[in-house]
């Protein structure tokens, strides 16, 4: 079991209020991702749940039990750090066995569990090495191994993949997702990579300046963003926003259109513009088009070959225009 | 790439370095040489460099007059005892200053250091009276206690700087892995800080070994250490220079050997974390 509940959690460092007031319900077995811009309080929130930071006010419950004042060692959660935080003086085997040793597990059981974890994570041949003799990806696996052996109530990940190269990230992303499907243990995962957020999460928490902007499934966030911040944060390339008269036509203070919801034509359409930059990715082409309402991004197929200065017409999909009021809330 | 330095400059600096090293070493060398001279030769004018009549008499005389083995044992007990006791107190103290600092931590560190700037005679009378009333005068445990207190600021400071180099993530990982404070310190912090702890231990053994002021004032016959042993050979009259040298040589030899064999460790510890 591993349901996590936060009610009116507040965290201040001295006079600086980092998290004003957050309430969240995370269900047992859920994969929840915290995303948000740098400095918005993702790590702080995760560390509050872990018990590595003291809560200034509010309550944290694990399976209904109040753990607000419990030290991390008594919460039964496991954490994977961005820096891996392996014990440099211990072999891989001892690193993985450490939590079991702390729990006074019998030696025979420790050996069995460490061997099992090592086989699952392809670490069997490195068990006697020290962490410094491992690659980044292997270290990450050891960190995960150390987290899984003790069968925690929930896993906490703080940007675990950000030190890995792109190809390895994709692999590890899949491995973590598979691990979740296999273990069915609650996982909370902090990232600022929205591809990771969209692909891994059951539900995503979008944070901004210490506040929850929206909490929902990836597709909910994509299709029905609660406000302009979420609309701009989820989706890549980011949504185009148009203010002023053009927005007024839709009875809104501002409107948003995603690059993938704009049709491109050389002859006719709603808005006229001139291609500024064309980014060709092979599969897609992103055009940055200068229009009367500013620079708009358009996603089109990879075969388009526009260059700087080409005149184009843009037409937004009328069913996919997002409208926002003056406060930025979705209408 | 090594920087290019003209050969003449290099030779010049090498000679200079040797000259300074010899200058610094000369008192020790002179002590060693004098220890093997007769008392008459030791004060001869002009002085001789190498002993004309090589003699071991002084060492015998020194052992006869005042028990070397007893003093050496006392030195070992006090210097190691006070350092180990200091470490037991300082490791948790340095842990809290490095990893759970408060607004006042810096002030406390500065205050501790400031106690080292005060001349020891300033507290001589109160400490002497306290020791007298607690019957700690001329006892090994009393001396160990005062030596621990004297060196505690240095031990805490050294450990604090070493602990600062340890990534706090790793200690947090231990906490997440279910380690209570005691296990976090013994299983993770101490093994990671071993080079630093070892050089703290060595340096403080050396400092305690060489400490003279308190050992001479707070002990007489029973608990005297080697510094008290040396000072008993400096009398204002009579021929004592060669015996004093022999006593000094006997007193510094153990610590000199310890320093010699551990210099690699000492340098590594003192520059720990300077190069990552
Ligand atoms: N110990 C601390 N003392 C004071 N302020 C802190 C402390 N830790 C974090 N903060 C502040 O709290 C805010 C949130 O920090 P946090 O590390 O949670 O951000 P984050 O969302 O994880 O950012 P990133 O994506 O860059 O990791 C930041 O403005 C940071 O400066
Ligand atoms: Mg962070």
TrEMBL record, chain A:
Keywords: ATP-binding, Nucleotide-binding, Transport. SUPFAM superfamilies: MOP-like, P-loop containing nucleoside triphosphate hydrolases. InterPro entries: AAA+_ATPase, ABC_transporter-like_ATP-bd, ABC_transporter-like_CS, ABC_transpr_MalK-like, ABC_transpr_MalK/UgpC-like, Mo/tungstate-bd_C_term_dom, NA-bd_OB-fold, P-loop_NTPase. It is found in: Cell inner membrane. Residues 4-234 form the ABC transporter domain. Pfam families: ABC_tran, TOBE_2. GO terms for cellular component: ATP-binding cassette (ABC) transporter complex, substrate-binding subunit-containing; maltose transport complex. GO terms for molecular function: ABC-type maltose transporter activity; ATP binding; ATP hydrolysis activity. It is a peripheral membrane protein. Belongs to the ABC transporter superfamily. This is Sugar ABC transporter ATP-binding protein.
From TrEMBL, chain B:
It comes from the Bacteria. GO terms for cellular component: plasma membrane. Its main location: membrane. This is Sugar ABC transporter permease. It is a multi-pass membrane protein. PROSITE patterns: ABC_TM1. Residues 72-262 form the ABC transmembrane type-1 domain. InterPro entries: BP-dep_ABC_trans_perm, MetI-like, MetI-like_sf. Keywords: Cell membrane, Membrane, Transmembrane, Transmembrane helix, Transport. CDD domains: TM_PBP2. The chain crosses the membrane at residues 12-33, 76-96, 108-131, 143-163, 184-206, 240-261. It is found in: Cell membrane. Belongs to the binding-protein-dependent transport system permease family.
């Amino acid at each position: 079991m591993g349901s996590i509940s936060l009610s009116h959690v507040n965290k201040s460092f001295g006079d600086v209020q980092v998290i004003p007031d957050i309430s969240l319900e995370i269900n047992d077995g859920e994969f929840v991702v915290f995303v948000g811009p740098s400095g918005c309080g993702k790590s702080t929130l995760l560390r509050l749940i872990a018990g590595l930071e003291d809560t200034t006010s509010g309550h944290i419950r694990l399976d209904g039990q109040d753990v607000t004042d419990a030290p991390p060692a008594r919460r039964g959660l496991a954490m994977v750090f961005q820096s891996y935080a392996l014990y440099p003086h211990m072999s891989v085997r001892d690193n993985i066995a450490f939590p079991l040793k702390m729990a006074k597990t019998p030696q025979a059981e420790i050996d069995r569990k460490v061997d099992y974890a090592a086989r699952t994570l392809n670490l069997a041949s490195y068990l006697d090495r020290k962490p410094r003799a491992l690659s980044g990806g292997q270290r990450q696996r050891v960190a995960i191994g150390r987290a899984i052996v003790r069968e925690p109530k929930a896993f906490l990940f703080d940007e675990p993949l950000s030190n890995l190269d792109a190809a390895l990230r994709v692999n590890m992303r899949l491995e973590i997702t598979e691990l979740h499907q296999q273990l069915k243990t609650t996982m909370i995962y902090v990232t600022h990579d929205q591809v990771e957020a969209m692909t891994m999460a059951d539900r995503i928490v979008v944070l901004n300046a210490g506040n929850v902007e929206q909490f929902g499934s990836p597709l909910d966030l994509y299709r029905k963003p609660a406000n302009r911040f979420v609309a701009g944060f989820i989706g890549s390339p980011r949504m185009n926003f148009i203010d002023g008269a053009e927005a007024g036509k839709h009875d809104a203070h501002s409107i948003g259109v995603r690059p993938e919801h704009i049709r491109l034509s050389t002859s006719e359409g709603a808005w006229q513009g001139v291609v500024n930059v064309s980014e060709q990715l092979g599969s897609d082409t992103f055009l940055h088009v200068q229009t009367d309402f500013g620079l708009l991004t358009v996603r089109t197929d990879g075969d388009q070959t526009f260059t700087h200065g080409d005149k184009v017409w843009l037409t937004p999909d009328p069913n996919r225009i997002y409208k926002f009021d003056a406060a930025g809330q979705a209408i | 790439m090594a920087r290019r330095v003209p050969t003449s400059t290099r030779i010049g600096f090498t000679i200079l370095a040797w000259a300074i090293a010899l200058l610094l070493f000369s008192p020790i060398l002179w002590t060693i040489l004098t220890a093997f001279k007769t008392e008459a030769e030791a004060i001869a004018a002009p002085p001789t460099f190498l002993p004309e009549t090589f003699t071991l008499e002084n060492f015998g005389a020194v052992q006869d007059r005042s028990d070397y083995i007893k003093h050496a044992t006392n030195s070992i007990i006090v210097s190691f005892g006070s350092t180990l006791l200091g470490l037991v107190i300082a490791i948790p103290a340095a842990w809290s200053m490095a990893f759970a600092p408060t607004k006042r931590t810096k002030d406390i560190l500065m205050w501790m250091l400031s106690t080292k700037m005060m001349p020891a005679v300033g507290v001589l009378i109160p400490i002497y009276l306290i020791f007298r009333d607690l019957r700690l005068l001329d006892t090994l445990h009393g001396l160990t206690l005062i030596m621990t207190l004297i060196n505690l600021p240095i031990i805490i400071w050294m450990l604090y700087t070493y602990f600062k180099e340890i990534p706090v993530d790793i200690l947090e990982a231990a906490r997440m892995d279910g380690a209570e404070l005691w296990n976090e310190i013994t299983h993770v912090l101490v093994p990671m800080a071993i080079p630093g702890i070892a050089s703290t231990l060595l340096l403080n053994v050396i400092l305690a070994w060489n400490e003279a002021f308190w050992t001479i004032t707070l002990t007489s016959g029973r608990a005297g250490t080697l510094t008290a042993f040396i000072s008993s050979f400096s009398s204002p009259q009579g021929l004592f220079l060669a015996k004093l040298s022999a006593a000094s040589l006997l007193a510094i030899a153990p610590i000199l050997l310890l320093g010699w064999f551990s210099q690699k460790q000492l340098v590594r510890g003192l520059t720990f974390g300077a190069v990552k």
